[in-house]
């Protein structure tokens, strides 16, 4: 072999090696890392993104600038810049603050590769919330960390409460040190699925809000609807490449959620007419598989089969300022919010702006009307469909909208002296009744309405 041939083969090998990490984003994805510098990234740390956004602009800007300044400082132990680009790879020496996207994201699919070293510990924060865990299963400090499962490796939602879904990965999927690992992370609402090296390690689990963990359960908020992606640093070198993200729109989000956990549900709307329903049937127009509430019409339309404990699934769409409700254990007459167990609000999240009026927190979307407020800000934009699941079990009600649990509360614990209406609520403790819709004159739309008896 001539020297020229050897040189050509070496050049080919170098080009091929560079192409391994210079992959183009898959269709629909965008590159978060340009393989040249930290454009599009800022500094960050373990800090509640909600609180960051609530700071005065000058204070928020100063805090971010201080975090960002550490990215290009040299570490005392390594003598290296904390974050640097090397051969098209994003490299961290184990110190400094976290590489954090300047842009915030809602629902997304994230792809990335990482390679780390023995005794390293890192993670990927989703919407600023820790974290999809990356760590060496042979940590020397295992005796000091009894809450870590000693053999389950990377990929779990480590900051979830112990023994809750997603906390520990389903299987051990890490590759040996020196090899690249590949993550695929799907996030819809607060529900997260993780594949590590093509193996499913987290299956549609709720990412809990780390920043509220010390609060009583009934005071904890779900994670933010939007926030940054963060690459954590934690004491050992880690390399990143092929960081690609695809934002997920409302329609796909609803489809993903509707496909999950649908076993045992029965459709109660045939998409053509109101067979099986009772109440003022003239309040509804049925068209193309959709129930459309007629403008200017009120009343309670209900599925004519009495229920005790159940789950309801449905898609809804509200106009600006739109108002409707889910009648829960409705007796077939009277006011569903008082004569029934309750009414769960269906309301435009921007109702106050649309109507230029103030409402009580116990009137926002998903609330147990007038009694228990739901978390706000998880609806899709006006004109888009939303997916909702409501669970009624005993005196407890849980409401999940677009993949985020916005209410989980016990109606029996409500002190009627404190409720919004400040008067008796004869139906609050009902054990059975009908499920339906409480219309308030607005053209709210519903489709794919299903019930599962518990």
In short:
The chain has 454 residues and is mainly β. Helices cover 12% and strands 35% of the residues.
Could you explain the architecture of this structure?
This protein is mostly beta strands and 454 residues long. It folds into 2 domains: 20-248, Sandwich (Jelly Rolls), CATH 2.60.120.560; 256-453, Jelly Rolls (Sandwich). 12% of the residues lie in helices and 35% in strands. It contains 5 helices and 26 strands. Strands 1, 3, 4, 6, 9, 10, 11 and 13 form an 8-stranded antiparallel beta sheet that branches. Strands 14, 16, 17, 19, 22, 23, 24 and 26 form an 8-stranded antiparallel beta sheet that branches. A hairpin with a 2-residue loop joins β9 and β10. The model is unreliable at 1-20 (pLDDT under 50).
Task: For the structure shown, list the relevant keywords.
single chain, 454 residues, mainly beta, Jelly Rolls, eight-stranded antiparallel sheet, 5 helices, 35% strand, disordered N terminus
Structural class: mainly beta
Total beta-strand segments: 26
Q: What's the name of the CATH homologous superfamily of the largest domain?
A: Exo-inulinase, domain 1
Unreliable residue stretches = 1-20
- Principal-axis shape equals elongated
Report the C-alpha radius of gyration, rounded. Answer: 26 Å
| Proportion in β-strands | 25-35%
Number of domains: 2
CATH class of the largest domain: Mainly Beta
Average pLDDT rating: 91
Q: Which CATH-level-2 architecture of the largest domain? A: Sandwich
Distance between the termini: 75 Å
DSSP helix fraction: 10-25%
């Amino acid at each position: 072999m001539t020297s020229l041939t050897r040189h050509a083969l070496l050049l080919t090998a170098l080009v091929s090696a560079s192409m391994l990490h210079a992959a183009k984003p898959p269709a629909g994805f965008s590159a978060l890392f340009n393989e040249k510098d930290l454009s599009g990234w800022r500094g960050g740390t373990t800090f509640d993104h909600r609180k960051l956004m609530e700071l005065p602009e000058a204070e928020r800007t100063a805090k971010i600038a201080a975090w960002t300044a550490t990215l290009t400082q040299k570490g005392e132990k390594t003598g290296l810049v904390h974050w640097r680009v090397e051969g098209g790879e994003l490299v961290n020496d184990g110190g400094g603050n976290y590489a954090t996207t300047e842009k915030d994201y809602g629902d997304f699919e994230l792809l990335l590769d990482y390679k780390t070293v023995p005794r390293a510990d890192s993670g990927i924060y989703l919407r600023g919330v820790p974290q999809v865990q990356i760590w060496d299963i042979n940590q020397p400090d295992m005796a000091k960390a009894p809450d870590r499962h000693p053999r389950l490796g990377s990929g779990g939602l480590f900051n979830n409460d112990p023994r809750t879904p997603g906390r520990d990965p389903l299987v051990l999927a890490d590759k040996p040190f020196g090899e690249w690992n590949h993550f695929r992370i799907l996030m819809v609402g607060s529900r997260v699925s993780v594949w590590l090296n093509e193996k499913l390690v987290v299956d549609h689990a709720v990412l809990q809000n780390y920043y509220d963990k010390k609060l009583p359960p009934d005071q904890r908020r779900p994670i933010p609807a939007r926030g940054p992606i963060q690459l954590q640093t934690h004491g050992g070198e880690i390399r990143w490449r092929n960081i690609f993200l695809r934002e997920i729109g409302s329609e796909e989000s609803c489809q993903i959620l509707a496909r999950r956990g649908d076993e045992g549900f029965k459709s109660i709307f045939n998409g053509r007419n109101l067979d099986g329903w009772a109440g003022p049937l003239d309040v509804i127009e049925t068209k193309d598989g959709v129930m459309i509430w007629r403008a200017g019409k009120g009343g309670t339309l209900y599925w004519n089969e009495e229920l005790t404990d159940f789950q309801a699934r449905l898609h809804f769409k509200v106009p600006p300022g739109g108002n409707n409700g889910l009648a829960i254990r409705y007796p077939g007459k009277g006011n569903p919010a008082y004569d029934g167990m309750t009414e769960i609000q269906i309301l435009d999240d921007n109702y106050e702006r649309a109507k230029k009026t103030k409402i009580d927190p116990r009137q926002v979307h998903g609330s147990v009307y007038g009694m228990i407020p739901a978390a706000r800000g998880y609806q899709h934009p006006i004109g888009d469909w939303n997916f909702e699941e409501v669970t009624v079990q005993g005196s407890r009600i849980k409401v999940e909208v677009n993949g985020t649990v916005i209410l989980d509360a016990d109606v029996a614990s409500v002190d009627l002296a404190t409720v919004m209406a400040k008067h008796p609520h004869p139906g609050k403790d009902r054990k059975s009744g009908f499920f339906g819709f409480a219309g308030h004159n607005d053209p709210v739309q519903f489709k794919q309405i299903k019930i599962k008896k518990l």
